[in-house]
Design goal:
By secondary structure, the protein is of the alpha/beta class. It is built from 17 helices and 18 strands. The strands form seven sheets. Strands 9-6-10-5-11 form a five-stranded mixed beta sheet. The radius of gyration is 28 Å and the shape is globular. 31% of the residues are buried.
Length: 484
């Protein structure tokens, strides 16, 4: 046995040295190898400012080459899927920057690298990520995670604590329904001059009934058209309830809309900077509740630092989650991921690409990003979404992102449908607002008119037709219409 061991032990040691398995020989060598990482992004300068400079300092052996995708959006590109496929084929980026629809399509086409095994192997820390992020990516990826996102956008509901105390109204709470929120807004007084009075809630840009009902319906994950089947669905109980709720809210006179800012007042160009700051009724202390993102906080702070108006600015405010749908009380339709970074399935630099993805979703990156102005969104690590003044910043991520897409398959509809239907809806619903037509009658008309519009075929112009052009892609013809 002793004689045998003299041969076996040296053989084992020799094998380990050759393979590098035991001492990480190959792993250490890999860590020190120079590699190039091609990353798809808008432009090189903004990429390095946002991500690249710190990453390059941490990983000097990885040379980053930014391939700018701006040219995809130049010219007359109508088929953006074809433009993206062409860009990937020509540029061969290792990391793709995608929106949700692009992410879903490329994942389904098998063009993205599955990250689930990598996260398990590398013991990637998923604790501390905003709730629902990985579920969102997995659901849109067909069951697997094919990308990571370093930041997110989320709206919250701001409320003026002083106004609620003044009128002895209990303040809003997280996960209130739209109906509860509107009823709360109605408890504030509605009298007084439009430019001086108090409003309960700001809701959207204008008093357009269709726009308001769409906000309510969207929170319940219902659409007015099934685009894939070309079937109108506006004459349903869900939409009737949304319209009735919107009409009731409008009749209450408790709502404020952005379109009211300059009604009967000075033209925007004639306003001073101080007038501009006070033109927002919430900042001016005249609005009880409003929706906004992290950038709205910066606007409040800027106004509060202005010597001329700082005494007129809202001081005692806080935030809660945006109103939710009754069927989806834990989801926000006002939360989104701007950039999803995915690794191309055929990338030769997957190890380096994973280092980048894991870094931009790490606590280290979140800590650095939390020191910035957050114009590009909030970091996905909740530990660094905090406020030194004690405001409820958890409201930014307390809800999970909704995967409902009200524009799903809209590319399958006739090009004229959107404009034509919105025009018809505006005409019929204006009669409802003026009490000249019943809601049921208006929805009957829109159901029929909309169905007729859905069944229209886009005109196929003849060669050389004046005022029209064609763009062929993937065997399809896209019509480009011009108007005089």
């Amino acid at each position: 046995m002793k004689v045998l061991s003299k041969f076996v032990i040296p053989l084992v040691v020799f094998t380990l040295l050759v393979t590098g398995c035991s001492f990480g020989g190959k792993n250490e060598q890999k860590e020190n190898e120079q590699s190039t990482l091609k990353i798809m992004y808008y432009d090189e300068g903004s990429f390095f400012q946002e991500y690249g400079m710190v990453f390059s300092a941490l990983y000097p052996n990885i040379e980053i080459q930014v391939v700018e995708n701006r040219k995809m959006y130049q010219g007359d590109n109508k088929d953006m899927d074809a433009a993206l496929d062409k860009f990937i084929t020509e540029e061969q980026p290792d990391i793709l920057m995608l929106d949700t629809d692009q992410y879903k399509k490329l994942a389904l086409d098998g063009k993205l690298y599955d990250l689930d095994p990598v996260m398990e192997k590398e013991k990637y820390n998923t604790e501390g990520l905003i709730p629902g992020m990985l579920d969102y990516l997995r659901e849109n990826g067909g069951g697997q995670v094919f990308g990571m996102t370093p930041s997110f956008y989320s709206q919250v509901m701001f409320y003026n604590k002083d106004l609620f105390e003044k009128y002895q109204i209990e303040p809003p709470t997280n996960r209130m329904s739209w109906d509860q929120t509107i009823q709360l807004a109605r408890r504030f007084p509605t009298d007084g001059d439009k430019k001086e009075r108090v409003y309960g809630l700001k809701m959207g840009y204008s008093e357009d009934l269709f726009e308001m009902a769409s906000i309510l319906a969207n929170s319940e994950n219902v659409n007015y058209v099934n685009a894939s089947q070309k079937q109108m669905t506006i004459n349903t109980d869900s939409w009737k309830n949304a319209f009735k709720q919107a009409i009731d809210a409008l009749d209450s006179n408790a709502l404020y809309f952005d379109s009211m800012r300059n009604q009967g007042g000075d033209e925007p160009m004639a306003q001073s900077y101080e007038d501009y700051l006070l033109s927002d009724p919430f900042i001016a202390g005249r609005l009880a509740m409003t929706m906004g993102d992290i950038n709205f906080i910066n606007q409040i702070k800027q106004a509060a630092e202005n010597e001329k108006v700082k005494d007129k600015i809202v001081k005692n405010w806080d935030i809660v989650t945006v109103p939710v749908g009754q069927q989806n009380p834990d989801q926000s339709s006002m939360m989104s991921f701007n950039n999803i970074f995915s690794i191309r399935s055929e990338s030769p630099s997957k190890d380096a690409a994973w280092k980048f993805l894991s870094y931009v979703t790490s606590e280290d990156f979140a800590r650095v990003k939390s020191k910035s102005n957050n114009y590009n969104g909030l970091p996905v690590r909740t530990k660094y979404i905090t406020d030194t003044e004690g405001h409820n910043f958890a409201a930014f991520y307390d809800l999970k992102p909704s995967t409902f897409n009200s524009y799903k398959d809209f590319d399958k509809l006739p090009e004229s449908f959107w404009g034509e239907f919105r025009g018809a809806a505006s005409q019929e619903l204006e009669k409802v607002k003026k009490k000249e037509q019943e809601l049921d009658a208006a929805l009957d008309i829109l159901q029929v008119k909309g169905q007729e519009m859905l069944l229209k075929e886009d005109p196929v112009p003849t060669e050389g037709a004046e005022g029209a052009g064609t763009s062929e892609s993937s065997g399809s013809v896209t019509t480009i219409e011009t108007t005089e």
